[in-house]
Amino acid sequence: MSREDADAIELIAKQLATAQAPCVTSSFQAGGVVLIHLLRMVRPDIPVLFLDTVHHFADTYAYRDDLVDRWRLNVITIRAAEPRPGLWQTDTTACCARHKVEPLFAALEAYDVWFTALRRDQSPSRAHLALMERFTLPTGKALRKVSPLAGWTTKQVWAYAKAHEIPLLPLYDCGYRSIGCEPCTSLPVDPSNPRSGRWRGEKLECGIHLHVAPSGVAP
Ligand code: SF4
Questions:
Q1: In this predicted model, what pLDDT tens digit does every residue of 11-51 receive, in sequence order?
Q2: What is the DSSP string of 92-122?
Q3: Protein residue whose Cα sits closest to atom 2 of ligand 1
């Protein structure tokens, strides 16, 4: 086990020890799947929140279903109360708010510790990501947001997956480096920024992870 693996597991175990209701969010990209693999070593039945935006690639749904079966994941699918397929064509901000931000924030009300697979090397918008931070939902409820892979590189994520024989989303074989909804995912235009293929370069974040605390102070 590498030093990075051991540090991540230690952080996860420590955070889970004081959690009343932990969860992890995942879109089943490489980092998310590696994080689930690490979490399962400590808490096999941790709720895995999957945000079904109704715009994912068919490959993503198929891969998710396969991994859920294979690892017997406690997956919880979250959807907008009233999805509007195609809204992205006229307003990506409204579409992300309706299909991602609002339903996820509503679902997170039930949890106190939120694990994410965010990493600093994913994008300039995540360069100052903290391992732990206080995250306040619109209702005022505060959670502990924990990103055990914050300091990992893409190379480390892929090396971990290879070492543990974890199959990854086949779309990576097509050249994608950051994979979200199909209409808003293309090949990266900037090789140094994996998320530069999202939203045709118009933006880097959907709105879920914009509230990054600079101090990394956990509640
Ligand atoms: S990423 Fe695109 S399709 Fe998905 S919710 Fe946002 S705007 Fe809509």
A1: 999 999 999 999 999 999 999 999 999 999 999 999 999 99
A2: HHHHHIIIIIHHHHHHHTT-SEEE----GGG
A3: 184
Ligand 1, atom 5, residue with closest C-alpha: 96
Regarding pTM above 0.85, the answer is yes
Ligand 1 centroid, distance to 5 Cα (angstroms): 32
Ligand 1, atom nearest to 93 Cα:
7
Is 206 noted as a catalytic residue in this protein?
yes
Q: Which residue has the tokens 């919880």?
A: 76
Domain boundaries, the chain: 3-201
Asked if 24 and 36 touch (Cβ cutoff 8 Å), the reply is yes
Establish whether residue 180 lines the binding site of ligand 1, counting it when its CB lies within 6 angstroms of any ligand atom.
yes
Q: Which CATH number fits domain 3-201: 3.100.10.10, 3.40.50.620, 1.10.8.60, 2.102.10.10?
A: 3.40.50.620
